[in-house]
Amino acid sequence: MSVFLLSPEQKAIQAAARAFVRERLPVSHLRALRDRRDPVGFSREVWRDMADLGWAGIVVPDEHGGAGLGLVELGLVLEECGRTLAPTPLLSTAVIGAGAIAAAADPLRREVLPALCAGQRIVALAAEEQPRFAPYAVATWARRSGAGWVLDGEKVHVVDGGAADQLVVVGRVAGVPGDRDGLVLFLVDRDAPGVSLQRLAMVDSRAAARVRFDQVAVGEERVLGVVGQGADLLDALFDRATAALAAEMLGGIQEAFERTLAYLKERKQFGVPIGSFQALKHRAAQMFCEIELTRSVVHAALAALDRGAADARILVSAAKAKASDTFILVANEAIQMHGGIGVTDELDIGFYLKRARVAEMTFGTAAYHRDRFGRLQGY
Amino acid sequence: MSDRDRFRAEIRAWLDASCPPSMRSRTNEYPEVWGGRRPEFPSPDAKLWLERMAERGYTAPTWPQPYGGAGLGPDEARILAEEMRALGCPPPLKSLGLWMLGPTLLEFATDEQKRAHLPPIARGELRWCQGYSEPGAGSDLASVQTRAVRDGDHYVVNGHKVWTSHADKSDWIFCLVRTDPSAPKHEGISFLLVDMASPGVTVRPIQLISGSSPFCETLFENVRVPVAHRIGPENGGWEIAKRLLQFERTFISTRRVDAADESQTLEGVARARLGVAGGVIADPILRDRIIQANIDLLCNRLTAERSREAAQAGLGIGAVSSMFKYYGTELAKRRKELRVAIAGYQGLGWEGDGFAADDLAATREWLRYRASSIEGGTSEVQLNIIAKRVLGLPD
Q1: Which H, E and C letters describe A352-372, residue by residue?
Q2: What per-residue confidence (pLDDT) applies to B261?
Q3: Which of A214, A347, B62, B128 is within CB 3.0–4.6 Å of B97 for a Cys-Cys bond?
């Protein structure tokens, strides 16, 4: 059975995503949002159109208004978005949000999932509290209060948080920060009393935010998963989100490389195209090899998650480590090979370098995932 | 039961009955069976295994039956390979004839030439070596100077080939020779098959930094070769030579990747030698390098799998053999260096008491593998090919 070849249905999704992104979400879209310091960080109108195409609920089961497809299909859409650095809430809402709500009690699922699939509900994960990815270093306390809970704490980096309607918040009910045990996940409204949100202007111009929770009351029905064992759900969400992010990164890698290759063929110095110089040819060929390897492992990780393979987590870490290293390599080389124009804001190529760095940091750096790759296999 | 399942069941039963238990192995270590006129077998079972496989054409599963193969389709051949792996049955024969020359002859030789040369390869009766490089023609292979001058229905060959692996043990050699010295260098080359027993052929081994000497120099002095042993047209040998190099690259890269670990994993050796702290390898820097090398090995294997799937669907990745040759050998070199680094001083012993046998073997492998990114086209040549053929970068 084929693992890597795309089915006709998957090819159709890829083609539709490519066409949509080229038309509606070119790099100039991100540039315009950045230049006007857009408070949302993406276009809700475009997102609703993407939802109409079935992508907001692409992994949500049909019964809740979704397309009932897998991460491989979602990865195809994200890869195309990655090509133009399209700012969309796919990662936060279609991957993490949809996955978190799926663990909720039935009434909450019925309330949220159809709206999410329709592109009317943006959901982001408020988990991280440290300067770098440390999923269990949670000091946001969730204390019992009557029939519900009260939340106190601060989340320093919420992906797509700037525009979220609802937040999946990771809190602690027991233990100390760093413990895997004692976590709980809630769904909290953005405009609930005590929630304050500060939009962060990151180098990649995406909609990240810092969020404070000050005596925020949350009802029992808003618990996602099992109280005290939130890490099980959190791990699954991060694994899926990490593999999906790697797919987005693959698109960015491919596009930055293709733009650079085109420049090597067109730019002339000393009377010849600079792509005829062996110093550049060899580096381009080395990048090609790294990209092919990255493509294989990213696809393998998504497919492994879809079929619930035992080694899926190992593949996810391999994919994120590899995609991170390759994206930074290709983005750095893209700037260097473009020469002087590569460091101007006028050219889009700089956006790829900026996104590469933020994406590498998000959900664990290459070094983090190499460490995890070893630990998962006992070394 | 589908045809495919039935075929799998038959193959499995036959392999299980035919592969001697002493040949079964869970490691990738192939038996050192190269066949030839003066064959050496590590055991009587190795000989038996080769004979049984050859009788069914399974040494060359996809070759047509009249040429000594089994005539299997790609799916059936894959099932055979999978079942061999599953049962621990090693390939019965190592052979440049199987890996490189045979596939080339299938594309370029006449029916008569195929009937003459392919069956002895499939049965392991003749051992072949490669006469490509010369003292003045390494990466610039097309500048070969070995001359073949027509004399009636023969060529008279004079010249000097180097890096002819195992020429001292081989029966025949496939050679690039210059048949038109006045033509542009790529257009005056012919592809010639030469019996090493011909008068005028001399072989001298070359000793390497690893201490071993798999390579030889082969000298031709007025060697008479029938014109019938030329493959393809006169002066049309370069296309054939390049095609054979693709087969060689594919073979080298798969061998290097699959053989990279063999019986010891890097992490296994590292745990034993460097110790374990907090459940992981104690040296954090070597550990990170080991994991990086393991991730790259995994990615390379997945890419090989992806490429196989694409090829089966008729969607080959272009110049893929150059990518695997380049990446596989560079990765294997890194892994061999790491193995030596993990062992510390013990990884740098040359011979004798005071060193463990596996460390001594690792040291020699590290040195041996320095050649892997030179032989069969250097890494730099592979990068040139990728830049030109895949990326379309200008000359």
Answers
A1: HHHHHHHHHHCCCCHHHHHHH
A2: 45
A3: B128
User: Which helix (H) or strand (E) segment is A325 a member of?
Assistant: helix A312-338
Using alpha carbons, select from A135, A138, A116, A86 the residue that is nearest to residue A235: A135
Q: Based on the fold, state whether residues B202 and B151 are members of the same structural domain.
A: yes
Domain membership flag for residue B243:
no
ipTM of the complex: 0.96
Which residue does chain B place closest to A366, by CA atoms?
B292
For residues B96 and B136, state if they share a domain. Answer: no
Q: Is A61 helix (H, G, I), strand (E, B) or coil?
A: coil
Chain B residues with beta carbon closer than 8 angstroms to that of A276: 393-395
Do both B273 and B168 map to the same domain? Answer: no
Domain with A138 in it: what CATH number?
Answer: 2.40.110.10
Residues of A in contact with B308 (CB under 8 A): none
Q: Per the domain annotation, does A3 fall within a domain?
A: no
**Which one, of A180, A187, A197, lies nearest residue A220 by Cα?**
A187
**A374 touches B at CB < 8 Å:** yes
Residue B42 structural domain: 3-102
Q: Do the domain assignments include residue A191?
A: yes
Boundary (domain end) residue, out of B84, B102, B120: B102
Q: Do A299 and B306 touch (CB under 8 A)?
A: yes
A307 interface with B at CB cutoff 8 Å: no
Final residue belonging to a domain, choices A72, A90, A121: A121
Identify whether residues B77 and B154 lie together within a single domain: no
Which of A281, A295, A379 has its CB closest to that of B281? A379
* Consecutive 10-residue averages of pLDDT for chain A (379 residues): 87 98 98 93 95 96 92 98 97 96 93 96 97 97 95 96 94 97 97 96 93 97 95 97 98 98 97 97 98 98 97 98 98 97 96 98 98 97
Rg over alpha carbons for chain A, rounded to the nearest Å, is 21
Nearest to B391 among A261, A299, A367 (CB): A261
Looking at residue B210, its pLDDT comes to: 87
Identify the CATH number of the domain in which residue A15 sits.
1.10.540.10
pLDDT digits (tens, 9 = 90+) for B29-49: 667 899 999 999 999 999 999
**Does B280 sit within 8 Å of A370, measured CB to CB?**
no
Structurally, chain B folds into a number of domains equal to 3
A102 and A131 share one domain: no
Nearest to B394 among A3, A273, A297 (CB): A273
Give the chain A residue nearest B323 (alpha carbons): A289
Burial class of residue A184 in the structure, from the number of CB atoms within 10 Å of its CB (0-12 exposed, 13-18 middle, 19+ buried): buried
Alpha helices in chain B (DSSP H): 3-18, 44-55, 74-87, 96, 102-108, 111-122, 237-259, 266-274, 284-312, 320-343, 357-369, 379-385
pLDDT tens digits along B95-128: 999 999 999 999 999 999 999 999 999 999 999 9
A143 CB near a chain B CB, below 8 Å? no
pLDDT band at B259 (very low <50, low <70, confident <90, very high): very low
Q: How many CB pairs under 8 A join A and B?
A: 120
Q: Which residues of B touch A299 (CB under 8 A)?
A: 306
Q: Average the pLDDT over each of A279-293, B214-228, B261-275 and give the range with the smallest value.
A: B261-275
Separation in Å, CA of A161 to nearest CA in chain B: 32
Q: Best of A259, A290, A293, A298 to disrupt the B interface by mutation (most B CBs within 10 Å)? A: A293
Q: Please indicate, yes or no, if residue B133 is contained in any of the structural domains.
A: yes
Q: Are residues A245 and A361 in the same domain?
A: yes
Burial class (CB in 10 A: 0-12, 13-18, 19+), B224: middle
Range of the domain at A296: 232-376
CATH classification of the domain holding A241: 1.20.140.10
Would you tell me how many other CB atoms lie within 10 Å of the CB of residue B222?
Answer: 12
Catalytic positions of B: 248
Contact A47, A56 (CB under 8 A): yes
pTM, two decimals, is 0.89
Q: Are residues B146 and B78 in the same domain?
A: no
Closest-CA distance, B260 to chain A, in angstroms, reads 17
A288 and B323: CB-CB below 8 Å? yes
Residue A270 touches partner B, C-beta closer than 8 Å: no
B135 and B96 fall within a common domain: no
